[in-house]
Amino acid sequence: MLVVDDHPVVRFGLAGLLERDFEVVARAATGEDAVRDAAALEPDVVLMDLQLGAGIDGVEATRRIRALPEPPEVVVLTTYDSDADVVRAVEAGATGYLLKDAPPDQLADAVRRAARGETVLSPDIARRLMRTVRDPAPALSRREVEILVHLARGLSNREIAKALFISEATVKTHLVRIFDKLGVETRTAAVTTAVERKLIRLTRP
């Protein structure tokens, strides 16, 4: 299997834990390295973090890995559990989705089941996914999510434009689309609704 995480301690810790039961063929710190190693080493399972620092994220890495001629199964192991994260990962082709607080025996079992081609979801994640299927959240683009995050931090249109290297007019266009998708009329309502639907997560400064 291949372990992918941008934090060295976590990456090597997971590999050490899993080496008791599995052959860990490589450890990757970036999404690009993960895709390269998956193609070259042909592991049966890839354990994938979502946030990988600079470069492509875990979702895009998963999508590229699953597009390989003989793709391995991908199990997401992350601290991010919003509905949007779950749906993006599953849509990218992830076989499983677990949180990093999962017990070691549950993680090992998930890897074995994924290797057999089974879908592996923690109970809470499964409930979230079923709820999303029954009552789907609005499909926000990645840029719209970025703008919502900046809105939540209290940035003005000008500050958002500067942060994202786009024009204020483009920010306004995105806001119109965001308001429409969320069914709101104000910036505050947009942020509140997005948080309630777990499209974004408020972080402390």
UniProtKB/TrEMBL annotation:
Q: Which residues form the HTH luxR-type domain?
A: 133-198
Q: Which residues carry this modification: 4-aspartylphosphate?
A: D49
Pfam families in the record, alphabetically?
GerE, Response_reg
Provide the alphabetized UniProt keywords: DNA-binding, Phosphoprotein, Transcription, Transcription regulation
Residue stretches making up the Response regulatory domain: 1-115
Q: Which InterPro entries match?
A: CheY-like_superfamily, NreC/VraR/RcsB-like_REC, Sig_transdc_resp-reg_C-effctor, Sig_transdc_resp-reg_receiver, Tscrpt_reg_LuxR_C, WalR-like
Question: By its UniProt entry, which SUPFAM superfamilies does this protein fall under?
Answer: C-terminal effector domain of the bipartite response regulators, CheY-like
**How is this protein named in the record?**
Response regulator transcription factor
Q: Which organism is it from?
A: Saccharothrix mutabilis subsp. mutabilis
